[in-house]
Design goal:
The protein has 321 residues and is mainly α. The chain is 76% helix and 0% strand. Helix 7 crosses helix 10. The chain starts with a helix and ends in a 7-residue tail after the last helix.
Length: 321
Amino acid sequence: MATGGSLGTFIVRRLLITILLLFLITLGVFSLILILPGNPAIALAGGTKATPAEIAKITAQLHLNEGFFAQYWNWLRAALHGNLGNSLFENETVASGIAARFPVTLSVAVGGMVVAVLIGVPAGILSGLHQGTARDRMVTVGSSIAVAIPDFWLAMILVIVFAVKLEWLPALGYTPFTQSPAEWFQDLLLPWLALGIGGSAVIARQVRGALVDTLDQDYMRTAVAKGLSPRMVVGKHALKNALSPAVTVIGIQFGYLLGGTLIIEQIFSLPGLGTYIIQAINDKDIPEIQGVVLVVATAFVLINVLVDIIYAYLNPKVRLT
């Protein structure tokens, strides 16, 4: 009963901190409008080519004739109701534009995370169970190389090898899953690998370190002394304790992958949030930029909250911090 209460207290405390953090994020996101030099309405309307009618329209649309905090409150109140404003140059709302593209970005991030886990967890276990051997050194060197390689550079190498040279996979384009699951998989395989390989290296290092530390504990040596089989010692005791810290790393990695897809999408011409925000930056479409940054930042924060709660459930000691 006490354990449940302490977990509940941890969750409430974590949610309160999250609310404050989200408030600061919204304030920072809205402040993006301040980066425009001079009168933002003139800059957004086309600079020196802007007509008085266009300037007046943007001024009214963004409430630029009001004070900063009045503008922020109007924007925040609308955002809380799912209204992120209208694009300045496209005939659509920002919310609908993001909703149409977010599934593509999410599918790339989730696929990259699956690749990272499928490679990183087994590699970390293999390295941790054979500490000091050739297999351990191979995983260590491989993970160091994978961490050092930028995702966009790896993406270009994958395109050259598998799309241009071998012609096994398409280099560009996107097929919706509902249209053809097989072509959807082929179109996203290279982006998944480009994102997942770097993430797998971080996970492998974490799993290896946690497993080595766990196997070095006194209770593990006691279990071996009692005659338990190596499979029982490793499978039932060591892996359970060693993989718990990896949950945090996996969650954080997923948040980074969600942001990293914005660059990868440009390389593979995927119609996700990356293409959307790059175009918005080129057009200086502030409502679109604010909307994408807010969605990605909020998703990152919420993922970390979920990870913290899961880790607190697995490790009661965390609830005291």
